[in-house]
Specification:
heterodimer; A: alpha/beta; FAD/NAD(P)-binding domain; 2 domains; five-stranded parallel β-sheet; four-stranded parallel β-sheet; 13 helices; about 30% helix; B: mainly alpha; binds flavin-adenine dinucleotide
Chain lengths: ~425, ~130
């Protein structure tokens, strides 16, 4: 059926009056089916654009285990008391009521690529002609010796927005003067390259606001350098003097392990103690993608740079954090951008609509302190077999306060824009 | 910014023309020459693009990229709405970003890779879109 063009399909339908006499719910089932796994930055955008731009020609099902979606983006601002929880949590209702998307609130447990079906937690299966896989990341707990899913209840990673984020916030708010935070930053590749350092800034902001300037944040990093490093370090010096100490591997010599009960992160150099540990381990594509055999050896999924189509299966598109998107960072902005390219190609596959050359873009804004926003961005195109950065920019050190304030205001506009683009 | 004030702005002769007029009246050597040349170039490009008919369907595809930040509902703070803007305003703005006359880095990046026909297509698309 997916081999038929829409016109051929229409002709066949038209030729048989018996088919036309079918009840509406049966006829609806004859539309090409697209299933989207994951209702985050990639999946929600893909579902919306598929439904919106096909004007009802596609049957779009969104499988997402949660009722509502809390964005990781701006979750650091929630930690810093710049946003409340409700303002970063969004409903799927409009995707259903406005675009006719079927939202299935359940966990996708398996993909049968042979039969082209997705199995759900309740035991049922959903068939597809095309599948979008956007499950985000999963945490590799044992990449940090001593860490585990259970340990995360004491020392949260908070790298998926939800109960983990709230737990980190509670622990942050409970700190008293002189009590320290140790953050173990993740190795590459991980979602949101500036994310750990924006988080350090927001935690330092909370400490400073409460007058806890005798408390320190130690950042133990497996990486030699990080995104917007000069800008963050300049900001920490300026706003939080003496409160943030960052250690790269040339200083700490390597991470030996963590003991969440004792509140310690042991490195070759020294053992760092904190009342609050924020452990962010290594990451890989969401389990469903790996179990379906869509990932390569590094735990992420190879795609065709021109379409986001899986190189493992032409009926599957992998977008967002789970994909290997060349030079693009794993961000909400990137996932949203990739979703639109995937939707375009899926519509072309199933409804013969026109395709245009893929274009991608990304900008990551970060907040260092009140009204002190910075950003880094680039645009990308398929080139030399991967998504390649064409041109980019980054905020400069020593920019004036007015520019930093307008950068922050722009980030608020971006947030409102992207969540509207995903959910309304 | 309200859409209505943007529209009023758009009805004027364009910032570039006004600025060009000032510079022609009071010439300052070197820098001003460069600036004047850029503004003149902007005027040429705007005229050239406005003389072609943009394809709104192509614009709808390209506009997906804009929708990440610019809300289609026509509301917004921090990032101005663009839905429903008159075509000549969109063309003028994108040309000015493309030439670096307008300074926002994100918009410069977006505009620099737009060919004339893409600017025309975007302008045609946003002009016909209604804020929802
Ligand atoms: C602290 C932090 C700050 C960040 N800040 C920014 C920022 O400022 N800007 C930015 O652009 N990005 C930011 N990011 C990154 C951004 O959140 C991610 O890159 C983005 O969400 C990726 O989108 P995605 O669709 O791949 O995954 P997600 O948005 O994580 O969505 C995946 C969804 O799939 C669901 N799911 C997974 N598996 C299944 C299954 N088997 N069945 C059913 N449902 C499933 C999950 O519940 C989830 O809702 C930040 C991330 C963090 C952690």
């Amino acid at each position: 059926m997916s081999r038929l063009t829409r016109r051929q399909f229409g002709l066949i339908l038209g030729a048989s009056t018996a088919t036309l006499a079918l009840p509406a719910y049966l006829r609806a089932q004859e539309k090409p089916k697209v299933v989207v796994i994951g209702g985050g930055a990639g999946g929600a955008t893909a579902a919306k654009y598929l439904a919106k731009d096909s004007n009802g020609a596609l049957d779009v099902t969104l499988i997402e285990e949660n009722d509502e979606f809390t964005t990781c983006f701006f979750s650091n601002l929630y930690l810093g008391d710049f946003r409340d929880w409700d303002s970063i949590t969004h409903s799927y209702d409009e995707l259903v009521s406005r675009y006719g998307i079927k939202k299935v609130t359940d966990r996708a447990t398996a993909i049968d690529r042979e039969a082209k079906t997705v199995s759900l937690g309740d035991g049922s299966t959903v068939p597809y002609d095309r599948l979008v896989v956007s499950p985000g990341i999963d945490i590799i707990y044992d990449s940090v010796p001593g860490y585990s899913e259970a340990a995360a209840e004491i020392a949260p990673h908070a790298w998926k927005a939800g109960p983990q984020t709230r737990l980190l916030k509670e622990k942050l708010d409970a700190l008293e003067e002189g009590q320290n935070i140790v953050m173990l930053a993740p190795p590459n590749p991980y979602r949101c390259p500036p994310g750990p350092y924006e988080r350090v800034s927001m935690m330092a902001h909370v400490l400073k606001e409460k007058g806890l300037t005798g408390s320190k944040i130690f950042v133990i990093d497996p990486k030699e350098s990080f995104s917007k490093q000069a800008l963050f370090q300049e900001g920490w010096e300026k706003h939080y003097p003496g409160m943030v100490e960052w250690y790269g591997p040339d200083v700490h010599g390597g991470v030996v392990g963590v003991d969440v009960e004792a509140g310690t992160v042991e490195t070759d150099l020294d053992t760092f103690e904190g009342t609050l540990l924020n452990i962010v381990p290594a990451q890989r594509a969401g389990t469903i993608a790996i179990d379906a055999g869509l990932a390569g050896e590094n735990g992420f999924c190879p795609i065709d740079a021109a379409s986001m189509r899986s190189t493992m299966d032409e009926a599957v598109f992998v977008i967002g954090d789970a994909s290997i998107a060349g030079d693009m960072p794993k961000s909400g902005f990137s996932a949203n951008s990739q979703a639109k390219v995937a939707a375009l190609h899926i519509r072309a596959d199933l409804t013969q609509s026109q395709t245009f050359p893929a274009r991608y873009s990304n900008t990551c804004w970060s907040l260092i302190e009140t009204d002190d926003g910075i950003k880094v961005g680039a645009n990308y195109e398929p080139k030399d077999g991967k998504i390649t950065s064409i041109e980019g920019f980054v905020s400069q050190s020593g920019e004036d306060a007015e520019l930093r304030k307008s950068t922050y205001e722009e980030s608020i506009g971006w947030y409102e824009g992207i969540v509207a683009d995903m959910f309304t | 910014m309200k859409l209505s004030s943007l529209k009023n702005l758009a009805k004027g002769s364009g910032a570039a023309t006004a600025a060009l007029f000032c510079i022609v009246m009071t010439p300052v050597p070197a820098l001003a020459d460069e600036e004047a040349a850029r503004l003149l170039e902007a005027e040429h490009q705007v005229t050239r693009i406005l003389s072609t008919a943009g394809d709104p369907a192509f614009g709808a595809y390209l506009g997906g990229e804009c929708a990440t930040c610019h809300q289609q509902s026509g509301s917004g703070s921090g990032i101005p709405p663009i839905t429903g803007l008159p075509a000549d305003y969109t063309v003028q703005a994108l040309v000015e970003y493309r030439l670096g006359i307008r300074t926002n880095e994100v918009m410069q990046l977006m505009a620099k890779r737009l060919a004339d026909e893409e600017i025309a297509a975007l302008a045609a698309y946003f002009a016909q879109e209604e804020a929802q």
